Amino acid sequence: MGAQAVSEGTRMVVSARSFADFTPQASFPIKKCDLHRLEEGPSDEALLTREQGLQYYRTMQTVRRMELKADQLYKQKIIRGFCHLYDGQEACAMGIEAGINPTDHLITAYRAHGYTFTRGVAVREILAELTGRRGGVAKGKGGSMHMYAKNFYGGNGIVGAQVPLGAGVALACQYQGNNQVCVTLYGDGAANQGQIFESFNMAALWKLPCIFICENNKFGMGTSVERSSASTDYYKRGDYIPGLKVDGMDVLCVREAIRFAADYCRAGKGPIVMELETYRYHGHSMSDPGVSYRTREEIQEVRTKNDPISMLKERMLSNNMSSVEELKEIDLEIRKVIEDAAQYAISDPEPSLDELCNHIYARDPPMEVRGTNPWVKLKSVS
After folding, report:
1. What is the mean pLDDT of residues 32-51?
2. Residue 261 has what pLDDT?
3. Confidence of residue 16 (pLDDT cuts 50, 70, 90)
4. Percentage of the residues of the chain whose pLDDT score is greater than 70
């Protein structure tokens, strides 16, 4: 009742103030990118409309709240198994989505909840997948690391294995001549994998429209980048491929860099490598408290000085593009969406045993699948 009263009161305050009173758009100086083998890079100024600002705020705040709810459900043992949370890195997912088209393609590693949402999957389907329920985006059989959507290829559990797949998707774009690009993401922990450099080589040889992005959140599991990599300039790792180093905590920096990179690829110039400097607030996964290899003070300092949501909020408020009341109302709406989604994820039924082997192959007639021994027969339906 109290929350409802606050919401109604907030709505009255916002509606009493005409939307015409707000600044419709503003330009902001952004951090200049470091360049590798490029004579010029993205603009160091970004234009933001009020509508874009509200959309970015809503999306990033939804991802933040969704991940905090997943943390809570995991601690209640409702979510089990692997669970890698994305809070702190929201500007990367939002900035990338704002800089490409819905028809473009994206593939990432196992920290995939944020991208699943920005690619268009509802919160309830994501949380239901985490709890292993029938209404999950992968029908409850994929879990945290294996979620998919149109033009989104997961969620991949094997470190670095998505990078050759992303190059393959880019090859398909080139082959079909559809002027689309593939955004291929990996973490600093995967950056020393041999398959990444094999992918770089083929992408450069064939001039594939692939944006290779290293999300550098400073730690591969519990190992700092300085201890794992002889060179921490990940944007230079493509050597013969041009690269950009971007402030991954600023949604506008990410958006402008991705637009630049997408234009570069669409012009037929081949691949580009990008490093997004970012930070995760949680540990590597829910089994990692995240404070044995860094201090609580370090995490708090990033939250205080460099939080991606707070940075966008401050820009909008200081330029009269929104009001505290309006943003509070959005926060209340998001909390309700998250709570409703959590209830759905808890109450939705688990998939039945009959569905265990379904969708092994696409467009195949029903087939028999051997169980744990030759006498157990299961059925697979495409």
Report:
1. 98
2. 98
3. very low
4. 95
How open is the CA angle 61-65-69, to the nearest 5 degrees?
170
* Cα 93 to Cα 344: distance, rounded to the nearest angstrom: 25
DSSP labels for 42-104?
S-SEEEEEHHHHHHHHHHHHHHHHHHHHHHHHHHTTSS-S-----TT-HHHHHHHHHHS-TTS
| Structural contact between residues 323 and 317, judged by C-beta atoms closer than 8 angstroms | yes
Residue 348 pLDDT exceeds 50: yes
Q: Are 102 and 136 contacting, i.e. CB atoms less than 8 angstroms apart?
A: no
CB within 8 Å of 381: residues ≥ 6 apart: 358, 359, 366
Residue 119 has phi, psi (to 5 degrees) of -85, 0
Half-sphere exposure of 295 (CA within 13 A, CB side): 3
Q: How far apart are CA 63 and CA 236, in angstroms?
A: 30
- The whole-model pTM stands at 0.93
Q: What are phi and psi of 263, to 5 degrees?
A: -60, -40
Q: Tokens standing for 352?
A: 């039945």
